[in-house]
Amino acid sequence: MERLTTDGQFFRQGGKRFTAIGASDFFLLGRYLNGEDIEPVLQQRASAGINMLRVWTRMQLAQYGIGDCTLAMHPDLYDRIPAFLRLAAQYGLYIEFTAYTGREDYDPQHWNRLIAAVRDETNVLLELVNENDQSGNRLPDIGMFQRPIGILASHGSNGSEQRPVEPFWDYATFHTNGAFEEVRKIGHNAWEVWHGPTYTNETSRYPDVGMWAGKTLAEATILAYDAAAGAALLCAGSAFHSRLGKRSVLWDQDTLAVAQAWAAGAQSVPFDCQSGPYRHPQEEEDPEQHLRIYRRGWWDQCRVVIRGKQVQTTPLPTTALLVPDDAVGTVDDAGPYIQGQFRRLGIERNITPTEFEFVRTWAIEHAGWDGNEQIISGRLVNRVLRELLEPYVALLRSSGQVG
Question: What's the predicted TM-score (pTM) here?
Answer without folding.
Answer: 0.79
